[in-house]
């Protein structure tokens, strides 16, 4: 539809919109894992425990940010950034609701997250993902991320990616002495 656009802005990790997106994200990736490995959806009690155990405080300023993407004004996606050290940020919680997919939101969220990471002083950004999240892996590769060795030992991490964020310096002309 004409006029349908994305807007992306920082949002408190515990805002109602952020909490709703976190629940949708976690439900989707958890159900996908359990369906693949155990032929069932996530147990509702387990889902509630895990959501409560990972509220997102690491995405709060001054060393983290959560970005929420709104499509046509409705919260439809998220991306989180947190500093791991002075030069390295981690990209996390990249998610777009199913009904908003295919409209460019994921790439916009990641670009905004990269700019946020630069603003936090990071020179590189890293992430991990699972093997069954093939769409995510293809997206990261398309956006210039390269697969690398592990940067963490997260229990479900199977693929690690990295992208340098340093802006290219302008070429200088010939030197004369």
From TrEMBL:
Keywords: Acyltransferase, Transferase. Residues 19-166 form the N-acetyltransferase domain. It comes from the Bacteria. Gene3D superfamilies: 3.40.630.30. The keyword Acyltransferase applies. Pfam families: Acetyltransf_1. One of its GO terms (molecular function) is acyltransferase activity, transferring groups other than amino-acyl groups. InterPro entries: Acyl_CoA_acyltransferase, Bact_Acetyltransf, GNAT_dom. SUPFAM superfamilies: Acyl-CoA N-acyltransferases (Nat). This is GNAT family N-acetyltransferase. It comes from Streptomyces dangxiongensis. The lineage of its organism: Bacteria, Bacillati, Actinomycetota, Actinomycetes, Kitasatosporales.
């Amino acid at each position: 539809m004409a006029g349908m656009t994305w807007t992306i802005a920082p949002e408190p990790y515990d805002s109602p919109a952020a909490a709703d997106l976190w629940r949708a994200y976690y439900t989707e990736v958890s159900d996908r894992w359990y369906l693949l490995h155990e032929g069932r959806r996530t147990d509702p009690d387990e889902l509630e425990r895990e959501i409560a155990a990972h509220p997102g405080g690491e995405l709060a300023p001054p060393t983290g940010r959560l970005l929420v993407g709104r499509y046509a004004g409705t919260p439809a996606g998220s991306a989180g950034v947190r500093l791991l050290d002075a030069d390295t940020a981690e990209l996390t919680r990249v998610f777009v609701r199913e009904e908003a997919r295919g409209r460019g939101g994921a790439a916009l969220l990641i670009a905004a997250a990269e700019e946020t990471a630069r603003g936090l002083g990071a020179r590189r950004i890293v992430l991990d993902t699972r093997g069954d999240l093939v769409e995510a892996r293809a997206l990261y590769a398309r956006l210039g991320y390269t697969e690398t060795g592990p940067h963490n030992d997260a229990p479900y991490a199977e693929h690690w990616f990295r992208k340098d964020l340093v802006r290219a310096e302008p070429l200088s002309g010939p030197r004369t002495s």
